[in-house]
Design goal:
The chain has a single domain, classed as Alpha-Beta Plaits (2-Layer Sandwich). The radius of gyration is 11 Å and the shape is globular. It is 16% helix and 30% strand. By secondary structure, the chain is α+β, with helices and mostly antiparallel strands. β4 and β5 form a beta hairpin.
């Protein structure tokens, strides 16, 4: 089962918590925007869990969302 990390830019407050938690460049901040690179090996569950607004979600290949 594959997964895709999605960012809801409408509710993201760009606090940077996800960027700080990212160890391998899976989440970066540039030019005032957050970028998610699904190809990076990250502890995505941990990154998603620290988002204070719930702007990050994990979409599974079956179309369902996790966390």
């Amino acid at each position: 089962m594959t997964k895709e990390i999605l960012l809801d830019e409408k509710i993201c407050v760009r606090c940077g918590a996800c960027v700080s938690e990212s160890e391998f460049g899976g989440v970066t901040f540039k030019d005032g925007k957050i970028f998610v690179d699904n190809s990076k090996c990250e502890d995505w569950a941990e990154i998603i869990s620290i988002c204070p607004t719930g702007a990050l979600k994990m979409k599974l290949s079956d179309g369902k969302f996790s966390l």
